[in-house]
Amino acid sequence: MRVALLVNPAARAGAHTGAATNAAERLRAHGLQTSILSGGSAAESSELLRAAIEAGVDAVAVAGGDGTVNLALQELAGTGIPLGIVPAGTGNDFAATLGLRELDVAAAADAIAGGVTRSIDLARVTRDDGSTRFFGSVLASGFDSKVNDRANAMRWPRGGSRYNIAILVEFLTLAGIPYDIAYEGADGTRGEVHGDLVMATVGNGRTYGGGIPIAPDADPSDGLLDLVLVRPAGRLRLLRLLPKVYRGTHAIVPEVSITRVRSVRLASPGVTAYADGDPIGALPLTIDMVPGALTIFTP
Predict the structure, then answer these.
(1) Which interval of the chain is the signal sequence (predicted)?
(2) For the chain: N or C, fewer Cβ within 10 A?
């Protein structure tokens, strides 16, 4: 089996570790022909991966975090070429949803060499200009996208703790944001939400921000998205909500609603959405599900 192992040296964290080299050595020890692809930018990395796929690789592996995995999703969606993940990034939320987050390099490489795969869904974002992009874990807009803005600009600390700090800082200027939302529910019925929200989040996976279970019951194999809406409340009340968010028990709070949907359109002026930890576009955006779009290696 020929494997293309993607690592992005422009990633914010984890890309300069020895994860890729160690994974490649482990894969080769299993008899797999493994080539490391490392572009100087996200665009160059995508080009290298696209060329490898066109040349006929049998599998793709990524040594990195959600941002680098997201690059691979764009090229692999719908191809049937399996993806292996060596978690080596800041958040690794997509890997967490798939049960791979805690794997070390050797175990992740062994899962690829083992050859066991399964199919999962991907969420597809359509912008107003008609362009599209896939994501695997969570799309965030509103308060949580502002947290992403702040966390991504922070040089210290590394890891998931910077998201915690960013959350607390953003609370100082917390305010409701006007939204217009239209969705198709799991049973095909249509629904709309209009008015101020703190945030509107769409989950294919369960966690974001390095393990925060914002959509605790999301299943990337059920053909549905989890739409999580948080309505304004007093700042102190929302601050008290945070421990429930970290435990994944926030669905019981009156200001929170979680709805299973087939598709959803989010509109709000001046709001940029993030997906898999990176900016994906300004609202309005339409998000729908592509069932079974990705094949992944699993232990």
Answers:
(1) none
(2) C
Q: Which of 82-96, 157-171, 229-243 has the lowest average pLDDT?
A: 157-171
Whether CATH 3.30.750.24 fits 2-115: no
Segments making up each domain of the chain, as ranges: 2-115, 126-291
Question: Which sequence positions are flagged as catalytic?
Answer: 278
Residue 135 predicted with pLDDT over 70: yes
Averaged over 167-196, what is the pLDDT?
90
Q: Considering only the top CATH level, what class is 126-291?
A: mainly beta
User: Does 163 have pLDDT greater than 80?
Assistant: no
DSSP the chain: -EEEEE--TTSSSSTTSSHHHHHHHHHHHTT-EEEEE--SSHHHHHHHHHHHHHHT-SEEEEEE-HHHHHHHHHHHTTT---EEEEE-SS--HHHHHTT-TT--HHHHHHHHHHT-EEEEEEEEEEETTS-EEEESSEEEEEHHHHHHHHHHH--SS-STHHHHHHHHHHGGG---EEEEEEEEETTS-EEEEEEEESEEEEESSS-BTTTB-SSTT--TTSS-EEEEEE----HHHHHHHHHHHHHT-GGGSTTEEEEEEEEEEEE-TT-EEEETTEEEEESPEEEEEEEEEEEEE--
pLDDT at 10: 61
